[in-house]
Amino acid sequence: MSRTPEPPSLTPRFCFNQTALRDFLRISRGTVDDTISQNLNALVTPGTSSTFDPTSTTERTPRPIYRRPIDAHACGEFKKRVLFPSWQSRSDVLNYCAGVATSPDPEDPDHVLREVEDGKARERIVDERLDPYSARYFPQDSRTEALAGLMRNERMVESIIRGRTWGLVGERCDNGGRGFEEALDEWRRGEGGR
Prior knowledge:
This protein is mainly α.
């Protein structure tokens, strides 16, 4: 089974380091979600059927491994030990960093620079007849605004990836007709609960 990366220590510094944040999400998704077909194929153990099935000789070509159903116990263990913990660790990071993005940032290194630029823009005399571009002013986003935008994007990406992964899991394992949100919430309340 795949080993998911260790969740990072959650600090505002980690969230504002967008490279580290994106790397964690990318590696976590790559370990489980991007390789879901391979992970599911690894759950199929060849030759585990206890008896010979005579109807297997009537098929011209055996069903490929990627279409074979997987043992319910193996599927359950994979979801419980690999899939849901990976999703939960990413959810924890996204929720924490979204909270940091909505909090005041007293340590913003560019705060003073932005204030000076905003003051200069207010004092500027604009005569668009002489210079049509003189009114252009593009204020720089604060760290928290940039982080909030990144969190919105990453949550959308996460939802798409989980939906795709859950669909592939549902093709090979029984997911009980539930959506991934419902299954993850059930796991949280049950054995993996927090």
